[in-house]
Request: fold
Amino acid sequence: MRDRPPDGRRSTTATDGTRGQLSLPLVEAAVGALLVAAVALGFALGAPDPGTRTAQLDAYAADATTILASDPPAGTGISRLAAASRSSTAFDRERTALAARLDELLPAAVVYRLRTPAGTLGHRPPAGRAVGRAVAPTAYGTVVLEVWYA
Amino acid sequence: MTPRRRRLRQPATGRRAQATLASLALALVALTAVAAMGVVVADDALADADRTPEQRRLARGLSDRLVAADAPLTHRANVLSADRVADLDASRVESLVPAVGDRSFAVRLDGRTLASRGSPADGTTVRRLVLVGDPRATRRTVPLGNATTLPRTRRVDVALAPTGNTSVVGVRVNGRVVRYDLDGLDGETTLRTSRQRPPTLRFETRNGTAGTATLVSYPLDADPGTLAVTVGA
Reply:
């Protein structure tokens, strides 16, 4: 048996009739905002790879590698890249000329890292940013050039 | 017991649960604001996306054709000839890459326009690193008795001038015999050398080593540059 209020009313509603109501438009707006936020989150987290930027950086790296591969070395050897891959003493001999040549070839805002079997030249590539890459074979191993915008 | 009838309980004052205009307006404003923010986030995320992949592909393909090793303008891969580059015009560009069709394009070298059609202001640009230059004749006169190392070149013009009783019977490049005549070599000759290493010339002579040889080599004199290819709509 349900408890009845003492003054004989049928239910526990307030006398002046104002019931606690949740404003329905606000509920709808909240649900709509939640849906839009979910879609926006999908964009923010799953953004596609910026293909244009990498393509240009790849072109820079490929061109720099092609030009370096046919440059004469400062020491002995057929090409600058081959001399820099031959041995660590040969790499030290080529190091300054290589750095100067790469600074001359690449545009001002581009930073590089050149890895040969005998040594590495340049800065560490950043994680999470577009990095262009080119690979050149030499008689002593593979030379990898990575470039990115500073 | 009276049957309890279900009845809508109307509050005494007659006020029903209504969506008020104020709360509706507030809800719409909030939803619009969230939708606008979502669009901004999406646009930011897609800002780097390539909306015209065809232009980019054509620009890249055209630049590849221009700097290739077997291109009409190049000495070798990524080395453009400064003389031949001046001959480039729009019809040659179109014959190189027919897929360009009737789009607007522009080919620039270090800011200078080599060939263009229309004004590809909104087009995609691909930049390539190149060396620009041509072989330049370098002349040296050396005594016949010395071995001479020249800069890398594909060609050496040799003019022999032995004096007295000396006769030149042979010419060696990097140890390899390229000219040989026991009756004596004289006059001018052109040697083809490899670009792979600097050529060292040595002359074999009879009856002494008096005399000189004039050597003209053609090393490549090239400076770095940037080739920018833009393809528009």
Summary: The radius of gyration of chain A is 34 Å. Strands of chain A lie at 110-116, 119-122, 132-138, 141-149.
